[in-house]
Amino acid sequence: MAAARFVERLNHQIAYEFAASQQYIANAVYYDSETLPRLAAFFYAQAVEERNHAMMMVEYLLDADAPVTVPGVDAPESGFSDIVAPVALALEQERRVSDQIGELMGVAREENDYLSEQFTQWFLKEQVEEVSTMSSLLAVVQRSADSPMQIEDYLAREHSQSEATDPTAPTAAGGAL
User: Fold this and answer.
1) Model-level pTM greater than 0.90?
2) 64-116 residue pLDDT tens
3) Superfamily of domain 4-68+79-158
4) Nearest-5° angle of CA 131, CA 27, CA 91?
5) Which residues, at least 6 apart from 17, have a Cβ–Cβ distance to it below 8 Å?
6) Cα gap 30→15, rounded to integer Å
């Protein structure tokens, strides 16, 4: 069984992942309202990814015969001053999640919970990718804020292909929905 302190922290992380999913939906809705369909689609997809991260954590706890807490989350930020703000918020959020996952890994290591440490490693790898993607997108959005169609073109070029499922990813509770 997973260490009690790890289980407690992972349940908190589930809340953070669901909150991130909600924030990305709010970002997507903002871009949809601005008639920026590629930015909207990008964030809708990110919302599903964050939700699936939460469900991977749920499945891990279920598999470890540990208690699972399904949290409520605060309302996401939805009033944005310009097209840069949602991406800047997303990058800040991804950096915060990276820190949270690192702390989660530290708890597993301190508790000599090697199975939980191994489970957490995938999320650390994922966060490197997430921060990199948001950093690049923020640079493009900042450079092209006065010409949003260039951002849409960038996303069409760089993010239009559907991502292959990572075979090393943990299983999500409920399957890959």
Assistant:
1) yes
2) 999 999 989 999 999 999 999 999 999 999 999 999 999 999 999 999 999 99
3) Ferritin, core subunit, four-helix bundle (1.20.1260.10)
4) 20
5) 50, 51, 53, 54, 57, 97
6) 23
